[in-house]
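Minutes, project check-in
Item: structure for the 142-residue chain
Input as provided by the requester:
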Amino acid sequence: MTLGKGRLALVAALAGTVLAILNVPAPALAQSSAMIVATPCDFHAGGVTLPAGTYIVNRQGEAIQISDSKGHTAFLISTAVPNPAAKQDNQLVFNRYGDDCYLSEVRWLGYSNGRGLMKSTKEVEQAKAFSGRNVLSAGLTK
């Protein structure tokens, strides 16, 4: 059985489209992830302590990079978590135990999922020692 010229052209066009889609780099399919936020307190992000200030936050696959203009940087592995602020604003969410703040989540405006961060051993110990926690958030600055 042979295909007519029109059908053959259609099959070739569809195959080309599929191949073009498969060759799009992953970042082009990922959410736009850059945000600038002002943090209200010094905070722990993974094993790093970062001072209060203005930070650029980027998502790179499953990792989050947070850095400021003074060279303070942290790279964190994250997992998908529900984003209750999807219609509000970009946010960083912190768990606060006494005077210590720990970056807990990164949320992007318009996305149903944010990125949750694993608790460090130190945060787990502090969470056990405190009866409660305060949750703080920092929103978009620009």
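Outcome recorded: The helical segments are 5-22, 26-29, 121-129.
No further action items on this chain.
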